[in-house]
Design goal:
single chain; mainly beta; Porin; 2 helices
């Protein structure tokens, strides 16, 4: 019974955290995103940004791929909560940048899948715009148990769209840049109900954020503010290159990250996150740990990401 109570509480936190977009698949996609408070809306050096702002991949100069795994609340034994994702983005020169992403949330009774196709282009040296088309598919198993009311399992397939823009102010101080991002998600507000019910429509999501990057001292500080329906969320985070070295003739970088986010809603749900990154020969391994500040007796979540830039 205790584990069941914890599971219900954990699911409540997830719903509050991602209810702004209507699904569990809106949880932070990568370990790096987790440590920046749950969003990469202002970033442009990571293929996972296509989930947060399609314009962000417009600044990538080569092919970049990523895959992630998250185990949610590993101490819970009643269910197996987690999700996986993958992304890739390739710069095709004057044609623009194309990206693709996929992610899947799973539990014993509920599954969500999302396929994303993204196009972005740098219009000027300081401005990028982009858009994504998304196929959303979710399934719910029929209720089970001695007291369950017999009914069919549920499933539905729908289409949604995102748009975004980014601009950069270079050398605001020597070797220091600021990049701003603006994102509108699920702009057609599709319904996830099979009958198209209005109460099941996804909220229009708006995110705005900025990243300050110091190329002199090798650090980045970011924040974002997200609004979707009645839910508002503020996220902040920082990344510091703590060590530079070399191995096998290749540069090695160790990054340390810390951040968090919170909603000013009556539930006051928030999280504190920490993690690190290790970069070698084009590969970057990222790890993050999430601690939910409002839940007791529930373990945190582990996030793992592997990226490669060709």
């Amino acid at each position: 019974m205790k584990h069941r109570t914890f599971l219900q509480a954990a699911c409540l936190v997830l719903i509050v955290h991602v209810g702004m977009a209507g699904g569990f698949s809106k949880l932070p996609v990568s370990a790096r995103a987790v440590t920046f408070g749950g969003s990469l809306v202002g970033f442009a050096d990571d293929p996972n940004v296509l989930f947060y702002n399609p314009a962000g991949i417009g600044a990538l100069s080569s092919l970049s791929i990523s895959t992630s795994f998250t185990q949610l609340f590993s101490g819970i034994t009643d269910d197996n909560l987690g999700y996986i994702s993958g992304s890739a983005a390739a710069n095709l020169g004057f044609v623009g940048t194309l990206g693709v992403g996929i992610r899947a949330f799973y539990s014993n009774t509920w599954k969500e899948n999302e396929l994303v196709g993204t196009y972005a282009r740098e219009l000027f040296d300081f401005l990028s715009v982009g858009g994504s088309a998304k196929v959303l598919y979710w399934t719910a198993s029929p209720p089970t148990g001695r007291l369950a009311v017999p009914e069919e399992g549920l499933s539905n397939l729908t289409l949604s769209f995102d748009v975004g823009a980014q601009t950069i102010v270079r050398d605001i101080f020597p070797e220091n840049d600021i990049r701003f991002g603006l994102f509108f998600g699920d702009i057609t507000q599709p319904s996830i109900a099979k009958n198209g019910a209005d109460e099941a429509k996804l909220d229009l999501k708006m995110s705005a954020g900025a990243v300050y990057v110091s190329r002199v001292y090798d650090y980045a500080v970011a924040f974002h503010y997200t609004v979707a329906g009645d839910v508002k969320r503020l996220g902040v985070g920082t990344e510091i290159v703590a060590m530079k070295s070399s191995a096998f003739g290749e540069p090695v970088h160790v990054m340390v990250r810390v951040g968090g986010g919170a909603t000013p809603s009556p539930s006051h749900q928030g999280d504190v996150n920490g993690g690190f990154g290790l970069s070698l020969a084009g590969f970057t391994f990222d790890y993050a740990f999430t601690h939910q500040t409002e839940l007791q007796y529930v373990t945190g979540s582990h996030h793992l990401t592997l990226r490669y830039t060709f």
